[in-house]
Amino acid sequence: MVRFIVEDSGAGSKNLVCNFSGRMDTASCSECENELFEKVTELKAPVIFDMQEVDYVSSAFLRICLKLLKTVGTESFSLVNVHPNVKKVFKIAGFDRQITIS
């Protein structure tokens, strides 16, 4: 469901890239949420959610994004490779005003 990659972003800083795949429904979110927040707390680095392989997000995933946004701040959280249908869900929820989505 999720793979974690720590990538060098230059000048000695790092990013935590989280590659999600499949449907991010309630069941899959509950499986990965604890591990995700452990990694975020451990690394204290900007977080990037790579959504290339995600075709569905539920309200449980939106809740994870909101919780992460409050944890790391708006400048340290972004979504990349978001499919148009998934992007529409974030837009309807108003997350596009708080999170960088591309």
Low-confidence stretches are none
Report mean pLDDT, rounded to a whole number. Answer: 93
Helicity level? 40-55%
Q: At the first level of CATH, what is the class?
A: Alpha Beta
What would you note in describing this structure?
- The mean pLDDT is 93.
- The protein is 40% helix and 37% strand.
- By secondary structure, the chain is α/β, with parallel strands linked by helices.
- A 5-stranded mixed beta sheet has the order 1-2-3-4-5.
- The protein has helices at 26-43, 59-72, 84-92; strands at 2-10, 13-24, 47-57, 77-80, 100-101.
- The chain has a single domain (2-101), classed as Transcription Regulator spoIIAA.
- Helix 1 packs parallel to helix 2.
- The chain contains 3 helices and 5 strands, in the order ββαβαβαβ.
- The radius of gyration is 13 Å and the shape is globular.
Q: SSE layout and pairings?
A:
Layout: E1 2-10, E2 13-24, H1 26-43, E3 47-57, H2 59-72, E4 77-80, H3 84-92, E5 100-101
Parallel strand pairs: 2-3, 3-4, 4-5
Antiparallel strand pairs: 1-2
Helix pairs in contact: 1-2
What is the gist of this entry?
This protein has helices at residues 26-43, 59-72, 84-92, and strands at 2-10, 13-24, 47-57, 77-80, 100-101. With 102 residues, the protein is of the alpha/beta class. The radius of gyration is 13 Å and the shape is globular.
Top keywords for this entry?
single chain, 102 residues, alpha/beta, Transcription Regulator spoIIAA, five-stranded mixed β-sheet, 40% helix, 37% strand
